Amino acid sequence: MAAQQIADHREGAEIYTGDAIGKQKSIDLLDEIHLPKGLLPLSDIVEVGYNRSTGFVWLKQKNRKYHKFHAIGKSVSYETEVTAFVEKRRMRRVTSVKSKELLIWVTISDIFVNDNDLGKITFGNPTGISKTFPVSAFQLEDEK
Question: Which residues does UniProt assign to the signal peptide (predicted)?
Fold first, then answer.
């Protein structure tokens, strides 16, 4: 399904290929929408695309990536194709991102920073359950 969404939103999108430019563009995007720059710690990025008119973003990487956010003790899995619709302080309809809760991998579908408390970031799943953490836990290593 992600591949079809990407195909649907390619026309008119800014597309960048390669790991170095892909990492920089993903950080630039997070900065532009006012989310922590360490939120998408992907590696071996193949392509990053952003269709500003629809708000659709995609990131392709060679392999699935597992990352542990040590400040909060959470492990996160990023599949090879991560997609989302973005707007200021929010990523909606996120695909291919999961967080490990106890022994179960839980799908993350919504990520946002509430305008009333810019120091907290909330992650929601499709069932409506959410968890909130300090934004500082998702900063880039050199920003901490």
Answer: none
Spatial CB neighbours of 68, under 8 Å, sequence gap ≥ 6: 74, 75, 76
pTM of this structure? 0.91
| SS3 labels along 20-80 | HHHHHHHHHHHHHCCCCCCCCCCCCEEEEEEECCCCEEEEEECCCEEEEECCCCEEEEEEE
CA distances from 124 to 4, 40, 54, 58 (A): 24, 16, 22, 19
Closest listed residue to residue 76, CA positions, set 107, 30, 113, 112:
107
What is the full DSSP assignment across 87-98?
Answer: ETTEEEEEEEEE
Supply 140's token pair: 């880039």
**Nearest-angstrom CA–CA distance, 121 and 90:** 9
Check: CB of residue 98 under 8 Å from CB of residue 106.
Answer: yes
Residue in this structure with the two tokens 């892909």, named with its chain if needed: 22
* Tens-digit pLDDT profile for residues 5-28: 888 888 999 999 999 999 999 999
Question: How far apart are alpha carbons 28 and 77 in whole angstroms?
Answer: 21
